[in-house]
Amino acid sequence: TTRTPTFLGLGDNVDGEDLRHNGSASDVIVGVIDSGIWPESKSFNDIGFGPVPISWKGECEEGMNFTASLCNRKLIGARFFLKGFEAEMGPINQSDDFRSPRDSLGHGTHTSSIAAGSAVKEAAFLGYAAGVARGMAPLARIAMYKACWLGGFCVSSDVLAAIDKAMEDNVNILSLSLALNRLDYDKDSIAIGALAATEHGVFVAAAGGNDGPTSSSLANVAPWLTTVGAGTLDRKFPATIILGNGKVFPGESLLFQGNGLPDEMLPIVYHRFGKEVEGSIVLDDLRFYDNEVRQSKNGKEPLGMIYANMVFDGTELVATYAQSPSAVVGKEIGDEIRHYVITESNPTATIKFNGTVIGYKPSPMVAGFSSRGPNSITPEILKPDLIAPGVNILAAWIGVKGPDSEFNIKSGTSMACPHVSGIAALLKAAHPEWSPAAIRSAMMTTAKTSSNDGKPILDSATGKPSTPFAHGAGQVSPVSAFKPGLIYDLTAMDYLHFLCASNYTSSQIKIITRIEFSCDRSKEYRISELNYPSFAVTINRGGGGAYTYTRIVTSVGGAGTYTVKVMSDVKAVNISVEPAVLDFNNVNEKRSYSVIFTVNPSMPSGTNSFGSIEWSDGKHLVRSPVALTWT
Amino acid sequence: AFSERSSYVVHTAVTTMTSAEKFKWYESSVKSISASGEVLYKYNHAINGFSARLTPEEVELLSGKPGILAVVPEVVYKLE
Q1: Do residues A75 and A44 make contact, with C-beta atoms less than 8 angstroms apart?
Q2: Contact A306/A241 with Cβ under 8 angstroms?
Q3: Which of A269, A274, A312, A388 has the most Cβ atoms closer than 10 angstroms to its Cβ?
C-alpha cells in the first residue's frame, strides 16, 4: 500500500531506520484466507529474502495456470479449497475462475499485499495514490489459502479446511477478510477454527464487516478474534464541480484513465429523466453504497458523470474505477445540483479534477460502511477491537480483471484487516513470546483516539465524534504497540470460562473448543472477568446500580508505578478503580485491579455512555475504552 | 439424490484416536447411514470432525449416532 505505512507512523523507507523493529519479521508467516493470489505481482518478489523459515510445513499446490515454481521466498505457500463451493454451487466455470491458488477476483492479491507485500517503487493506479507500495510487514512471508470463489463467496467447509491446513503448515498470523454476522459461536466455522488456531499460538485478525452504519451490524465478534473496523486515510482524490449559475461544490474524483473534461461548460442532464447523454455530463443518483457505481447510461458514453448520494449525508465518498471522468458528491450538495438541473432550462456544468492530495484533516474518520457494535452475540465484549485504514487503499492487483494496472484502489474492512495482520507480524517478530491476546492487547491499549487535527476521531456517517462502538479502542498505532508497558493476557482456560459464563452447554463447548470441559456449577462465571483490554457494560433497567469488572495486567515494560485516570461522558455513571496505583518491580509481574461502575439504572433504554480507563507510568499510556448500554 | 443433498460440518466427540483412526471413523460413520454420502473434508486441527454432503434424512440418522456432537449446515461467508 502507498501512504498507509507513513500515515500509521511506520514510514515508507523499507531500508531505513523506521523498520528497526522488523529485523526478524522474515521468520514470521502470514497466512491469508481469501480469493487467491497473483504470484507475478511485484509485491510478491523475493529479492533479498533468505531461505524459508524451518518451521514451514506448507506447499505450493499446482493447478490451472499455477505451477509450484511460482512460489518463492516471499510467497512461500499457496493452496486452494473448493470441494465445498463446488458441492453447493456446481463446478466452477474455468473461464471465470482458476482451479488453482491463482486469484481471479483481485481481492486476495490486494489483501495479502497489504499485510506483507514487498516494497515496489513507483506504484500507482491510473496515476492516483502514487508512491512506494509496501505491506505492513514487508519482510514477512506470505501463504495464500484460496477458499473464496466467484462472487466473493466462501463456504464454511472450505474455510475450515483452509484454517486446518494453515495450522498444520505452521503459519503465525491468519488474516480473514470475510464475514457473516449474527452467527452463534458454535455455528460459526470462523470462530471455531480461529479458537483452535489461537490456542495453537496463531494470531487471527478478521474483518468486522461492511454493514455500517447500522447498529449491531458487526461480524466476527468472538473474543479470541481481533475484529477490525475501517477508517479513512489523510489522502483524497478531490474534484470541483462548477455549475452554470457560478456555484462551486467540492466532490471526490472517481478513478479514470486519460484527460479530464474540456475546459468549457457542458450541458448537464439528469439520468432520472432519461435524456440524451452524448456530449453531456450526466447527473445520477447514488442510492446505495455498493462500491461499484453504474457505468454507461442508455448505452451511450457521457462526457462525464456526477454521482449524487441519496442515502446519507456523510462526507466520506469511496473512490472506484470509472470509464469516464466522474465525481461523487454527498447528499446535501447532490440535492443542490439536482435542484439546479431540474429548475434551469439549459443547465451546464463542468468538473475539475485535482489529482491526489495528501494531508487531509481530519483523518482518520470511521468509514460509514464499517460495521458497528454493540456486539450482537456477546454484548459484554466490546467490538470492534480497533480500526485501521480501509478507504481508498492502493495495493497489488491481478492481470485479468478490471483496469489494466498492477495496482488497484479498493475500500472495505477487508482492506483494514490485513493492516492489522501485518502489524501483528511485526509485533510477533519483535516479541516472539507474546500470545495472540498479548499482541491484540498491545495494539488496542496504544491505539489512537484522536485524528490528525488533535480532536476526537469523527464518524463519517454522522460527521460527529465517533464512539467505541464504531472505532473500538481507536486506530492502530504500530510504533506505540511495540512498547505497550502493560498487557492484558488471555489463555485457553480463560476462553473456556468465558463460554461457561455465556451459558454454553458442555456439548456446545466441546464443539467450539474440542475439549471435554464441564462448567463448575458451584462457581459463578462472569463475562466481566474475561481479561479483555476493553470494557462493555450492559445495564438492565431496574437491576442493581453497581457492576464490578476485574482485570489482570502484566508488565512487559519492566519496573514502574502506574496511576489510573478515568474518563466518562455522562454524570449517570461513576467509575472507580481499586487500587488506583499499581507498582511493578520486574518485567512479567502481574497485578490485578477492579473497576466499579456505579450507574443510574433508570436511564432510558437504548442510552449509551462512553469513557476510558487509562494507566500511565509517565512513559507508557495503557488505555482501555469503556461503553455502557442501558437495555 | 445428489440434488437433495446439502453440505454440513459434522462435529464429533472423538479425541483419543490417532488422526488415521479418526479419519477412518469419519468415513465409516457416513457409510453407515448412506451408500452415496460424500465426505468433503476430514479436519485434523481446526475441529474434531468432517464435512459431508447429506440428505435431511441422513442428517437425522447421523445426529443420533454415538460420538456425533452436532451436524451444522454449511454457511456462506462473503469477502468484505
Answers
A1: yes
A2: yes
A3: A388
